[in-house]
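The protein record filed here:
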Amino acid sequence: MDFNFSVEHGQLRETMRRFCEQQIAPLVWESEESETFPPHMFRRLGEMGLLGVRYPEADGGGGMDKIADCIIREEMSFVSQAYCSSWSAHTHLAIWPIWKAGTPEQKERFFKPAVRGEKIAAFGLSEPEGGSNIRALRTRAEKVPGGYRLNGAKLYITNSPSAAFVLAAARTRPELTPDAISLFIVELPSKGFTVSKLKKEGIRSSETGLIYIEDVFVPDDCLLGGREGTYPVILESLSENRVGVAASTLGIARGAFEAALRYAKERHVAGRPIAQYQAIAHKLADMAADIEAAKWLVYYGAWRVDQDNLDAATAAKVKLVSSETAVRVTEAAIRIFGGAGIMREYPVGRFHRDALVYVIGEGTSEIQRNIIARSLEIKL
């Protein structure tokens, strides 16, 4: 492995750090309490070039790599994972398949405005009964003159309450084969497409919805790529995004650790900082070591993406280790804060709630272990 952060990576990290401190951090408290995402933020992120950092310049992007993508995620999640979640669902899950497999017209109509922050996008995959198990997909798309008629439901869809369009997965044939699942671009508002906003314990200011789809007509020109059978595009998108989510959980862990370290040095008990008590010092040492280990696994995964040789098992290892690290570190941070750790004026409770989302979301830790086990030729 030949990997180093470039000068450009360092500059991007400093830019992101300043942007998050100056423009996101002041909004986090109000956003969390109201459970809303400031709609102007997508436009601002687009103006900064942060919605398309790793797409080609010819397509309106920044022409950078997956490492750059992970730097953005890490620094944004250090301040607010909810903001990063909305950013990620938009810039990767919802529009990456359009860039990868869309027609030239679809790229002009949906991808490019989304990269500029002019249209908010959502990705409709998870369902009430099957979760993110793609093969259990129940939403149906029936071919009709001039397009398709969609029926079904989607659950836990980030950005859907404020989206201008949703990239929705539906079964175009009843058989359980990859070529029977397709993606459709549903413009909103659309008759029969109803979004109910959900209230959550974690990532509160990232707006999430339950979607009911009843006889929704989607014209032929909104079938992704103009063809049925885009299941492989979904799989490729999810595997790569697991590395991105791991970078987000790394940012969460860092945020909680730095808050706990600062508090431990400032909080005095019996005349000395609690950081000087061995029980606390050892917690902080373990947190620092876990974060360092997760960091290099995350950026190794990003490097593998850039080398175009990321496999599902490696992606699963990256996501499993980093997300579980975030849960351990954020819980330890709460313990270090003691009673103050459950007060909302401190951020560690929020960090912990957000970390718990990602041992479930984007594929549970148990699913990641199944993928890793199968790579070891263990039959489950």
User: Anything to note?
Assistant: The chain has three domains: 7-115, 121-229, 232-375.
